[in-house]
Amino acid sequence: MRPRAGTNGPAVAAMVLGVTGLITSVVFVGGLLGVIGLVLGIVALVKARRTGVGRGMSIAGAVTSCIAIAVSVLVAAFMVWYANNTQKCYQPDSFHQYTQCVHQQLTGNN
Question: What is the value of pTM for the model shown?
Fold first, then answer.
């Protein structure tokens, strides 16, 4: 089935993947969706330049995909930082002890 005249399929896909990637970027899935959306956004921009259809959606898809990638990278960096700073707290006897240990590790009150 061929797309309707006047549509840019990669632009629509890039926009959907960019928004979905942005929503799911806090659980790392968004980074992968963002990469795919960014590639499709670039393909859609090339197609939009040739056909004149879907330029705005292509740009929006590429931008939201880039933001999704950035948020995923920041979340991953935060998780590594957090794990590094709280590694002494991973064997608590209770959740209360865990929270106390994390608070002590992050504030420096040992």
Answer: 0.80
